Each structure stands twice: as C-alpha cells, then as structure tokens.
Predict the 3D structure of the following.
Amino acid sequence: MEKSNTINIIHNQNDDSRKTAKRLREKLLNKGFKTTDYFDEDAFLNICIGGDGAFLRAIHRFNFSEVPFIGINTGHLGFFQEISPDNLDNFIDKLSEGKYSIEKLYLVEGIVCTRTSCIELLGINEIVVKGIESKTIHLNISINDTYLERFSGDGIIISTPMGSTGYNLSAGGSVVYPNLNVLQLTPLAPINSKVYRSLTSSAIIPANMYIKINPEYRDENSILIVVDGKQYRFDNIVEMSFKVSDMRINLLTIGKRNFWSDIKDKFL
C-alpha cells in the first residue's frame, strides 16, 4: 500500500499562527505534499502551529490520533514545538528526504469513580487533583494497595515524563527524561501536622504500579480535576486511580533531539 503524503495542518487563531499556516501550506504543496481542509485520519503527519497549549489541545481534540505530531512554535516557551516559523524550508526538505524519527510519548490514565459511575481520563502532561476555589483537601494515598500517606494541602500532580517540565517543575517536582516509563507524584503545598503527614517532595512511580487516591468523606464534592489545563468537576468522588496508559502518542522529530539542550535553552 502506497504511503500517504497528506499532512494535517492544525493551528490556533492568532495572527502569527494563521500566517505561518498559510506559508507552510504553500511550501508543502510546492514540494508535492497534500494538505486538507479537514482532519484526515489516514494522513502521515499532524503539524500543530501555536504554543504548547495549542499542541496539547490538538491531541485531545483529535482523540489521541495515531498519526504522528510535530509542532511549529508561534507561542512563548514552545517545549513541545520543535520547529521555528523561520525554519520551514529546512524542515520540509528533511521531511521530503525522510530524515526524521518517531518517538513515543507516555500518557497518564486516570479513572475517577463516583458513587454512581467511573470516568476515564487521559493526560499528556499531567492530571491534577486539587480543591475547588483553592480549598485545602484531604486525601488518602496508596501505591498499589500499600497505604502511603494521609495528605492535606492544595492538591497532587500526577505527571508524565514529558509533563515533568511543566506545572510539575513549577511546583518543585523533578525533571524526568522522556523515555522513562514512569509517573511522578508531586504534592501541592503539603501540610504536615500531628494529624496529616505528607511527603514534601515528589515521588517517582514505575509503570507496573498504580496510584490510588481516596478523598475523605467531607471532600467528596470539593475536588477539581485538571487534565492538561482542562477542568472537570464530578460529584461524590470516592476513589481515583492513576497509571501509565497503554496508549502512546507518536511524536515526529527532525534530526536528533537533545533533551538536555532543550532544558538548558528553555529554562536556564
């Protein structure tokens, strides 16, 4: 079967992104690629134009498509976005020559159970469990079936390795190399007292283990769940569990991407 040469171009609505999308489309057509006005699941590449937020929203919007993603940065930090708008010709040349590789990103899967149903959530960067309106929440946290802590504080971040450089890092969590098959459990403003004893630093959880969180009864209706920046409210939450998902996202990279150089360039 002949390989598709169709590319999905996805962009946000700011001026730089729209202008870049127009230029990119013209350059791709001149190189013999096809682009569409709709999302084609049989395409060979998704190009997301914008910042990291636009990149994350695109993956969620198109239901974690198996088609590889790459980003063009018209935002601020652009940690996911590998390509500069000034470097489109070089990018398209390497794409034409097949000089690229595919990396797989680990995802975090959450199952939130209320008194009546269970809801599955999937995150690229992180899933955050926190109190509504900045309320202090109280959580009993276990790893597998081993009780770990009675947490009190603003909340908990469960981040993927790729997400470790986002909210997790801002909250004092550790940077984790992207190809490590782990999750990171990071506390948000933990309170330590005679009643509640919480870890004050992050913990790395391997893929063969899951994190289980049971809110105390008085907090069943006080929890806000944030998945890659999108907020969810559920009534009467009795249990939440999190693990490394069996699903992966394909990330196309041009040349050899150096994670530690990216860390230095973006953060130091």
User: Anything to note?
Assistant: The chain has a mean pLDDT of 92. The two ends are 46 Å apart (CA to CA). The chain has five helices and 16 strands. The chain has two domains: 6-98, 107-247.
